[in-house]
Amino acid sequence: MSDLLERLRGRGWRVTAQRRVVAEVLDGDHIHLTADEVLERATARLPEISRATVYNTLGELVTLGEVVEVTTDGRAKRYDPNAHRPHQHLVCSGCGIIRDVHPAGDPLADLPDAERFGFDVSAAEVTYRGLCPDCARG
Ligand SMILES: [Zn+2]
Ligand SMILES: [Zn+2]
């Protein structure tokens, strides 16, 4: 059972076959798919799904705050369903694989007052970079 789908149902989201497939494709841990990857996987499950529906549904999920957009490589936006579980990202500089990670500290709380420059700071994103075991071996 999809956690994302359950959340959406709980919010009264109108679930059609096409929208359900998009939500199912996005369900899970360490999921960071580009729109094209979502389309590809959704099409594998429901061949008649349209590109427009996939893109519109993604936009809607982001607006609802159930899916967050992640950009780690300065290129394609990726869609992350774990909007309600605060986490940071570990990115391989070789193959680009992305892992959800949970630092021991809170990056938002860890910024000293002296370096807030009077900002009302509301969010922090940390990207850890390195080589995954496969790339390190390569
Ligand atoms: Zn790698
Ligand atoms: Zn993530």
TrEMBL record:
What Gene Ontology terms for biological process does this UniProt record contain?
Answer: negative regulation of DNA-templated transcription; regulation of secondary metabolite biosynthetic process
Q: Which Gene3D superfamilies match?
A: 3.30.1490.190, Winged helix-like DNA-binding domain superfamily/Winged helix DNA-binding domain (1.10.10.10)
Needed co-factor(s): Zn(2+)
Residues that bind Zn(2+)? 92, 95, 132, 135
For this UniProt record, give its keywords in alphabetical order, as a comma-separated list.
DNA-binding, Metal-binding, Repressor, Transcription, Transcription regulation, Zinc
Say if the entry is tagged with keyword Zinc: yes
Keyword Oxidoreductase attributed: no
Question: What Gene Ontology molecular function terms does this protein carry?
Answer: DNA-binding transcription factor activity; transcription cis-regulatory region binding; zinc ion binding
Top-level division of the source organism's lineage? Bacteria
> How does the cofactor attach, per the note?
Binds 1 zinc ion per subunit.
Q: Which family does it belong to?
A: Belongs to the Fur family.
State the name under which the record lists this protein: Transcriptional repressor
Q: Which organism was this protein described from?
A: Streptomyces triticagri
